[in-house]
Write a structure and sequence with these properties.
The chain has about 350 residues and is of the alpha/beta class. It has two domains: about 15-175, Rossmann fold; about 175-355, Dehydroquinate synthase-like - alpha domain (Dehydroquinate synthase-like, alpha domain, Up-down Bundle). About 45% of the residues lie in helices and about 15% in strands. It is built from 14 helices and twelve strands. The protein has helices at about 25-35, 45-55, 80-90, 105-120, 130-140, 175-195, 195-200, 205-225, 240-245, 255-270, 275-290, 295-300, 305-315, 345-355; strands spanning about 15-20, 40-45, 65-70, 100-105, 125-130, 145-150, 150-160, 165, 320-325, 325-330, 330-335, 340-345. A six-stranded parallel sheet has the order 1-8-5-4-2-3, with helices on both faces. A hairpin with a 2-residue loop joins strand 6 (about 145-150) and strand 7. The mean pLDDT is about 95. Zinc ion binds near residues 185 and 258.
């Protein structure tokens, strides 16, 4: 037998910058395209964002730009849309020197990032998130992907953009429910990482909020890009949140489910005497003030066995127990060394859901 070793050890720097401000997009693009040239530029957006912004901002992009619009909605974050977009790029002769621009919410960012990472084995892309959720969460961290019939984000890559440009002016047209959706992740950042930030959210403007959330998320992600340890803390509220989303067939928005998940996971932390009663009450109050607790009514009487089995089927959960992130206090998660999530069995869930009057 002969052996040939293929040595592929390489160190690559995937660092990039996030630019944040109000009404910064025009100047930023002008500057960026002065310094970087591309054979052709593809702006990918969904039908809602297209309707509001295409006419307004077309002139901010170079002449060799093309728009590609797909139908809005998570249900379109699938292989069909991906193939349609890829065909459109091929018809327009997009090559390895072209650039994709994701202009939209998380759905647009995920699908565009994924397409860029596989089109001709990978081309450059930038993210221009227009929803609050995408600004503070999905545009940072390099997770890209599409959903399949078996679940969300089951096909995807880790792939980092050239830059993220956040213009908070886009939030002016964002529906209220989508603000709530993003706010849940912002509250999460405060709960797991920064108490002062959480307590001052009400008096702060979006530019500052988005900046702090980006700092927190990018700090966590840069310490643990592939989710082996610390990055798990970003899953706070999400084990139960994702379970609720699926149990209710995605009729409840992600942020609402995460907020309820954070309430229940905080309660578990309190019942285990890891989190103080005072801190728990404060968390409950904050979630109430933002209107999230109104949704408790919608999940009342849920099928807990079904919820538990949905959570169990998640790849991160093993041996009849579900893993959740626990809070130690407001602004700090509980950890044992590099372990940030802990097993919970169905009996503990039932007890806590009963205490919260959900069952
Ligand atoms: P996410 O909540 O992960 O960002 P989407 O990409 O589906 O998910 O965005 C949520 C919804 O908000 C979509 O219907 C999208 O078209 C819409 N949307 C995104 N940005 C804006 C905006 N700036 N103004 C109005 N609607 C927007
Ligand atoms: Zn989330």
């Amino acid at each position: 037998m002969q052996k040939v070793s293929v040595k592929l050890k390489k160190k690559v720097d995937y660092s990039y910058d996030i630019y944040i401000g109000n009404k910064i997009l025009g100047d930023w693009l002008l500057d960026y395209f002065k310094q970087n040239s591309f054979s052709i530029i593809g702006i990918i957006t969904d039908s809602n964002v297209d309707k509001i912004y295409k006419e307004k901002i077309t002139s901010l992009f170079p002449k060799n730009s093309r728009w590609f619009t797909f139908s809005a909605g998570e249900e379109n974050k699938n292989i069909n849309t991906l193939l349609q977009l890829s065909s459109s790029l091929q018809k327009e002769n997009f090559d390895r020197k072209s650039l994709l621009v994701a202009l939209g919410g998380g759905v647009t960012g995920d699908i565009t990032g994924f397409l860029a990472s596989i089109y001709m084995r990978g081309i450059s892309f930038i993210q221009i998130p227009t929803s609050l959720l995408a600004m503070v969460d999905s545009s940072i961290g390099g997770k890209t992907g599409i959903d399949t019939e078996f679940g969300k984000n089951l096909l995807g890559t880790f792939s980092q953009p050239e830059a993220v440009v956040i213009d908070t002016e886009f939030l002016k047209t964002l529906p209220e429910i989508e603000i709530k959706n993003g706010m849940a992740e912002i509250i999460k950042h405060g709960l797991i990482f920064d108490k002062d930030y959480l307590l001052n959210l009400k008096d702060t403007d979006y530019e500052k909020i988005v900046k702090r959330s980006c700092e927190i998320k990018s700090y966590v992600v840069s310490k643990d890009e592939k989710e082996n340890g610390l990055r798990q803390i970003l899953n706070f509220g999400h084990t139960i949140g994702h379970g609720l989303e699926k149990l209710f067939d995605f009729s409840l928005p992600h942020g609402i489910c995460v907020a309820l998940g954070m309430l229940i996971e905080s309660r578990i932390s309190m019942e285990r005497k890891i989190l103080s009663i005072e801190d728990y009450n404060q968390i409950e109050n904050i979630l109430k003030n933002y209107g999230y607790l109104n949704y408790l009514e919608k999940i009342k009487g849920l099928d807990i066995e079904k919820l538990f089995s949905i959570m169990l089927s998640d790849k991160k959960n093993l041996k009849g127990k579900v893993r959740i992130v626990l809070l130690k206090k407001i602004g700090r998660v509980y950890n044992e060394g590099n372990i940030y999530s802990f097993p919970v069995d169905i009996n503990e869930f039932i007890k806590v859901f009963q205490t919260l009057n959900i069952l």
